[in-house]
Amino acid sequence: METNINNQPNNQKGLGFVKISIIVAIVIVMNLFFNYTVSLVYKEPVFDSYIKPAQVVETIKTKEECLKVGGQWSENAYPNLDVKGKTEVQGYCNENYTKQLNYETARKVYEKKVFITLIILGIISLISGGFIAISVLSISFAWGGVLSLIIASMRYWSQADNLAKVIILAIALGILIWLAIKKFNK
What we know:
With about 190 residues, the protein is mostly helical. The chain is built from six helices and two strands.
């Protein structure tokens, strides 16, 4: 049998590349599976279902009309150019104010649910990777779990408050340390 410069048989030459390719493929497909499954379980809020696009938009001119449709009235005072020392008050209505708040609230609830689910799936994958005997699968599950944690954190990080961030990081660090001790303390 012919050998290459690393004293490996030529039929083993591409085996390392194949293993790496399979690991990367499993990591990617696992996370696609996680994310598409989550999108089937949790329905993402759609902006247009909260704020319907109107074909004709009429100007709301009074504070009362604005508040009646759930809007936010903003007033500004301007100097009256015709009468010295007098000011004129002009208002503007953001008629979508309440609807926008409702959409943002629904979006935050949705993102939190997705975050928690992806974190749980990532942790399960990481732990599974620590117990699987087949090295290609062990590595794939571990890296798949890491990628799920990264994706979950990137999606939710800007919305989480500082206490939630500390708790998230503490849990992730604790699980990783536990897994490292369990897997490599032999």
